Amino acid sequence: MTTTASEADVAVSPDDRPTWTGRFRARAVGSFPPERLLPDRQPAYVASWIYVFGALTLAAFAVVLLSGAVLAIEGPAWYHSSSVGLYFNSMHLWGTELFFFFMVVHLWGKFFMAAWRGRRRATWITGVLAFVISIANAFTGYLSQQNFDSEWIGTQAKDGINSTGAGAFWNVLNFGQMLLWHVLLLPLVVAVVVGIHVLLVRRRGVVPPFSRPEPALASTRALPAGDIGFADDTTTTEISSPDGSAAAVGTAAGGGGPTVTGPSPTGNPEDGEGR
Amino acid sequence: MKHKTFNPDRDVVEWDGPSVRYDVFKEVTVCFVVVLILVAALSAIFSSPDEHPVTVKSWSTADPADFLQTAITELAGTSATGSYGPPYTTTPGVSQKLGPISLESLAGTRIPINTAQDFVIGPLLTLPNAPALDAAIATFKAASAKQQASWESAYATIAASPSFTGFNVKPGAYGPVGLMMSQLLSMARSGALDGALLASPQLYDTNYTKPLLFIQDGGYLPNLASAQNLTGNQWGMMNETGSYPGQAWLWLYTLWYQVPPMNTSANGDVEVWAIMMVLTVLLALVPFIPGLRSIPRWTGLYRLVWRRYYRSLR
Fold this sequence. Notes:
The complex is a heterodimer. Chain A is mainly alpha-helical.
């Protein structure tokens, strides 16, 4: 068959070529359809107060950011001479205390649920990262107080940080440097990591319970070896059935029976995929 | 095709059962309001600590003897800062090591501090209309290192006397050092030394490294901290003044400073940091580590979380 000139023109028309924006939109909408991003249904097994601690952590983070923003309006010395400033500083402190309390409960809750199962390892890792960076963020806050606490903590902490070599670049006795890390750089990193963490939760969903009894086919089924959890949700999970033949048992559409995930992708939008 | 067998600590049978009504927007909103009320109440009831910092002025006023005992070590270069090693000085053989590697030596002396010049001589030279002091400093600087050390040692001996107050300095063989120290004390008590230690060609300065190092070299600040249960062997890093929770999340980091060999090791800091780095990496990589990732299944605490689900299976 011969392609005419006019057909060729249509086929390669610049208007038809996908744009970066179009590709990004298609991928974003594919990964995060509205019902998954803002769910109004969730799996029935999500029925415990432990699930609230993730949202409580986010809420405390918001309170810390807001109280910190108020303190930033008047500057770092404001709260030393103003009762209003002291009150907002107290909100910043207690918001931080609650933030860590909620986060640690959330972390251990997820640990004992083995919440990394089924292609959720990146969710776990970003959670740990958020915890570690938050510690650094809070630490720089203690160094930025301009009072006895920041003076003592700084002079004591320098030895540990210097011993790693980092103190030559990250000087805990340099108030200006620590303040900027505290109010800009570290909160930005925490916000980005927490944002990725939340999006991963939305995408992968809440980890299901350990099967009880163990999956009937656990000893006989085999899963294809794969990567650790970033595959496209539309990929079909293939498992070997007991008789050795391959069978597709689950897709991102969530239809047709249980989806076995591990090295393979999963998704079930009908579940709403809660927290 | 390459296959892996189902591993209950890695893999999961995705849920295909019933779902229930859920409102993520409502949950986040309610959580925010609850936390806001809780924080507002805690702040109103407990406030937050804000003790005045120790300044060179307050230190030299409250404890002039300790100030001068510290100042003479700064002039001699034998204070904690003067002999610290990287990143402040090039003092050989004092860097902490992890096995054969000294990370602080690799990073280098990027914040160079000469305590004699930066903490004593430099600030004294900023005092106006002080010809006698200028002459004393000139004499000191022109003297040999051996002579300087002799004067410093003589002054340090007198300053170490239990009856030393900082003002009753008896005549001795400390040459120009006596005048330099008395002038430094006057300067400190007036507050001028605080400013001189911060002196910057930009006028604005937010780097308090020098005054903080000078103050921490003395005994006054640690004594105040000890009274507040803030020293290292009192889990100091995670505490703060008063009865506040402080950085309770640093408990594990602080714990290692309390136990041998770190609590007595010359390399204690880098050893503690190495332990914490390893533990942090282990925590992040739990999903990949056989054994560690099985702990949740072995302990069975998940049954509390999913008790309704398991009950429904009966």
